[in-house]
Specification:
By secondary structure, this protein is mainly α. It is 71% helix and 0% strand. The longest helix is centred in the N-terminal third of the chain and has 35 residues. The protein is globular and about 70 Å long.
């Protein structure tokens, strides 16, 4: 039995027809939309890069080792730095992270794993979404009324409580979405091997969702580090180190924490409106240092998230 040979058809493309197709309305519309998107992206990036250029240009003039380790200078005094503000910012953000991360992750676990359809879960989601739009100054007023008034003074823990109110909704909502993206077959496989609900969460769900949770934590830390209004009501400012004994930048007792604490955001706010050139230059350098700290925290978080492996 003869098998018919497979027929082949040669398609010839006319260059003139192809050139005419590029001038058709759909092709022109696609080209116009691509051009418009490119221009809009460049327009959105221009303010960002202009601010970064301005920060690097003006902030690098007073930046140096002395600026990172010395105390703020007096008016018209030479030298000085913002070392105490860097330490204060790290301490306040660390306190806020220690408060917000456990609360946010535990709440996310509850509303996704143990009571996703309950009224309590709906209330938690609603409260978290409302808190995302909470003005930061209101968080400062709340911490002032609950911490500053009760303790009788401005302090780093009061600032940490205020910032934690701004961090919790970000941590909670991003953790919830990360946990929801964990495949259900992984939970089913763990249950099939005899794992308890607690073991499923701690050994399967959380390690798998860790990159997304860490991203949310870094976003919350970045927002908290740059807040000024809550700290004006809670930690205020100080021209001195947190401790009176060497090393001065390490708080050693509770009394070292329960007093006004310097921060980069408040230092920038105070010195940017100063009429003295040395303090204005220091404010630019402090702003550059704050941007570098936030950027470094995000890079470290992304690096850890990439290296995480599935259980």
């Amino acid at each position: 039995m003869d098998v018919p040979a497979k027929s082949t058809t040669r398609v010839e493309v006319n260059v003139a027809d192809l050139e005419r197709s590029l001038r058709r309305p759909r092709a022109l519309f696609s080209f116009a939309m691509s051009l418009l998107t490119t221009l809009a992206t460049l327009a959105a990036l221009f303010p960002l890069f202009s601010v970064l250029y301005l920060l690097i240009e003006r902030g690098s003039t007073a930046m140096g080792l002395a600026a990172l380790r010395d105390l703020p200078p007096a008016a018209m005094a030479s030298g000085g730095g913002f070392g105490n503000a860097i330490v204060g910012t790290l301490v306040i953000v660390l306190i806020a992270t220690a408060i917000s991360v456990p609360f946010g992750i535990l709440a996310a676990i509850y509303i996704t794993e143990f009571g996703p359809e309950s009224k309590a879960a709906d209330a938690v989601r609603f409260a978290a979404k409302v808190l995302t739009g909470l003005p930061s100054i209101l968080a400062g007023v709340f911490a002032f009324a609950t911490i500053v008034v009760l303790t009788g003074g401005f302090s780093a823990p009061a600032g940490g409580v205020a910032l934690s109110l701004l961090m919790i909704p970000t941590v909670l909502l991003t953790a919830e979405q990360s946990i929801k993206r964990v495949p259900s077959r992984m939970r089913e496989a763990a249950v099939g091997m005899g794992a308890t609900p607690t073991q499923v969460v701690t050994r399967v769900v959380l390690p798998t969702a860790f990159p997304g949770i860490l991203t949310g934590v870094m976003l919350a830390v970045a927002r908290a580090a740059g807040e000024t209004a809550p700290l004006l009501f809670t930690s205020l400012f100080s021209d001195f180190w947190m401790s009176r004994t060497y090393p001065y930048f390490i708080p050693k007792t509770l009394s070292d924490l329960m007093k006004p604490t310097a921060s980069l955001a408040v230092l920038i706010y105070n010195f940017s409106g100063s009429p003295f050139d040395n303090q204005i230059a220091l404010a630019w350098s402090a702003a550059l240092a704050l941007v570098v700290i936030v950027l470094a925290a995000n890079l470290v978080g992304q690096s850890i998230a990439r290296r995480s492996t599935l259980p």
